[in-house]
Amino acid sequence: MSHTFYDRLSALDASLLGFEEKNTHWHEAAVMIFEAGPLRTEDGGLDFEQILNNYEWSFERVPRYRQRLVKIPLFDHPIWVDDENFNVRYHVRQIALPQPADDRVLKRVCGYLLELPLDIDKPPWEVWIVDGLENDRFALVTKVHHCMADGVTGMSILQTLLGRRPFERNGSPKPWTPRPAPQRAELVATELVRRVRAPFELLAPLRRPNEALQEARDVVQGLMQASKLGWRAATKTPFNPDQVGPHRRFDWTDISMREIKDVRSGLGGTINDVVLTTAAGSLGQYLREHRTATDDIDFRTLIPVNVRKDKEKNLGNRVAMIMAQLPVGERDPIARLRRVVETTQELKHSKQALGVSWLEGLADRIGGRFFAQLSRSATRNRPFNVVVSNVPGPPKPLYFLGSEMQAIYPMMPLFPNQALALAVLSYAGKVFWGFNSDWDALPDVHDVVEGIGEQFRELHAAAQSSASSREQSTITPTRS
Question: Which of the two residues, 33 and 232, has the higher pLDDT score?
Answer without folding.
Answer: 33
